[in-house]
Amino acid sequence: MGSSLKKRATVRQIAAETSLSIATVSRVLNGQDNVSPRTRELVLHAARRLGHDGPATRAPAGAVFVRCPYLLDDYFGPMVSSIVETIELHGMTAVVNAGTAARRPGMLTALPRTAGLAGGVLILPPESPDELARLRDQGFPFVVLDPRTSPPRDIVAVSSAHVTGARLVMAHLVELGHRQVGIIAGPQEWLVTTSRMAGYVAALADAGVLPSPERIRFVSEPSMANGYRAAAELLGLPDRPTALACFNDKTAVGALRAARERGLRVPRDLSIAGFDDADIGQATDPMLTTVHQPLAEMGRMAVTMLTRMLKGHDLDARHVELGTDLVIRSSTGPAPFTEA
């Protein structure tokens, strides 16, 4: 008898389980769109636990192609995991294509002809805007997550607020008295590099400082090894930086190694800040000051927008940015001396 009651869980029971209103739960279960992605997933999780059949609307037919042409590390891993979980919560199946094999030329052009695919989520696609536009013109629904280049205006894209995050971390360094700040930036052709550079420059300009070109290094790949090499160059300057703002936490870890090899104490002699809030940043000594990106939420948002497209809904906002937050830890401190 208890099993029968569980299968017939009421809206009131789900509302009590989630601490949400009955009206909100009803909107989710009736397939209405005026609910935030986080709230929708909370209700769907509770409904499954309680044995409810879930939303009244049918899931779109076909699987969702999830392409991540990179290693599933502590940056891309949370994105892909949240995407797959959310796809399954919507009653669909995920087809995941990841790693360097996912970079083979011509992959996107084959998607519209692949049987059983309803749409796709493309993570940091290396293809040009023109190639993405051609895929759109073939009628294949897709969402770009964390775009590498600026996507056409009518292509749906989800990213985080890179300009805001970079401005926050640079403002933090400025408040600590740093004026000679070295920047280890990402690949010059990446949209995110341009956005973060804009945030860094804006925060320095607020303090009346113009970034010196000799204190900026662009890396071809944001890795620990490249972060180490870039930091070694910057710390070898006659008038070295007192702080380093790094493209991500991996490059910041490389910078920590370069500082240690030169006998520099972090943060007493040199402050180092990363970006992403990856797990590796909490395994270093000192732990990294960084910028938190809502990677899992970005994945959930991408799937939510795709499912709306598949159901024929119009999207008022096609380029969505999710907020970033400064996370202050022990790798940043006051400038070691008063700078001219």
TrEMBL record:
Pfam families: LacI (PF00356), Peripla_BP_3 (PF13377). Signal peptide: none annotated. CDD domains: HTH_LacI, PBP1_CatR-like. SUPFAM superfamilies: lambda repressor-like DNA-binding domains, Periplasmic binding protein-like I. PROSITE patterns: HTH_LACI_2 (PS50932). GO terms for molecular function: DNA-binding transcription factor activity; transcription cis-regulatory region binding. Keywords: DNA-binding, Transcription, Transcription regulation. Residues 9-51 form the HTH lacI-type domain. The keyword Zinc does not apply. PANTHER family: LACI-RELATED TRANSCRIPTIONAL REPRESSOR, LACTOSE OPERON REPRESSOR. This is LacI family transcriptional regulator. It comes from Actinoplanes philippinensis.
